[in-house]
Amino acid sequence: PFFVYTAPQTAKNLLLYRYRMLGAAKQNAGKNGKKGAMYAFCSSVTGEEKVWIYARHPFMQIHIDSDIPFGFFMYYDATGDREFFARFGMPVITECLRFWADRVTERNGRYEILCVTGTDEHHPYVDNDAYTNYCVQYIFRRFNAIEKEFGAEISREERAKFADIEKRLYLPEEKGGYIPQFDGYFGL
C-alpha cells in the first residue's frame, strides 16, 4: 500500500518481479502436489523458497498467495492501469486462485483453509486463519466480478468452482462480530 500510493512505479516493479517469478511459483505448487502457483514465502531471485529449512512453519505462510493478487488489485484500483493489470496481473491472480481452489478443504458444508501459519508466526499450524481466509475470499470475489471483462483464460468448471469457493469459504466470526485470529483463538 505504501508504494502504490507514494511511488506507483516502484509498486509496479515489485509486481513485475512477482510476474517474472510465476513460472517458479507454478513449479513450487507442483512440488507440493498442488495446481496453480504457490509463491515462495522468502523468495530468491529465482523464485525458489529460501526460508530457513530448520523452521517448518514459515512454509505454511501461504497467505502470500493471496497477498500478491491483493497487491495487483490494489495497484489497478489506484492507477487504473488496465493494460498492466490485464497483461501481468490477471495471469498471476488466475494461477494463485487455481492454487487456492486446490488447497481449500470442503467440510461442514463450507470451504476451510487448514494447517497454515498466518501473519502471526507465533501461532503456526492453525485452521482458518482470519487474515488468510478473508483475503482469499476477497481475491475470489474481485476476480469473479471482472474475469470476463479481462478475458481470463479459465474453464467453465473453474469458473463454477471459483464462484462456489467465493460463496462458501468460511470467514471466521464469533457472536458480537468478533473475528478470532484463527479457530480456537479466543480459548487461548
Q: What key attributes describe this structure?
A:
two-stranded antiparallel ribbon, mainly alpha, single chain, 188 residues, 7 helices
**pLDDT below 50 for ≥5 consecutive residues: which ranges?**
none
Globally, the shape reads globular
Strand content: under 5%
Structural class assignment: mainly alpha
How would you sum up the major sheet?
2 strands, antiparallel
The average pLDDT is: 94
How are the strands of the largest sheet arranged?
1-2
> How much helix is in the residues?
40-55%
Rg is 16 Å
Number of helices: 7
Count of strand segments: 2
Give an overview of the whole structure:
The protein is built from seven helices and two strands; from the N terminus they run αααααββαα. It is mainly alpha-helical.
Summarize this, please?
By secondary structure, the protein is mainly alpha-helical.
Strand and helix layout:
Layout lengths: L1 H5 L1 H13 L1 H10 L32 H16 L2 H22 L1 E3 L2 E3 L17 H17 L9 H13 L20
Antiparallel strand pairs: 1-2
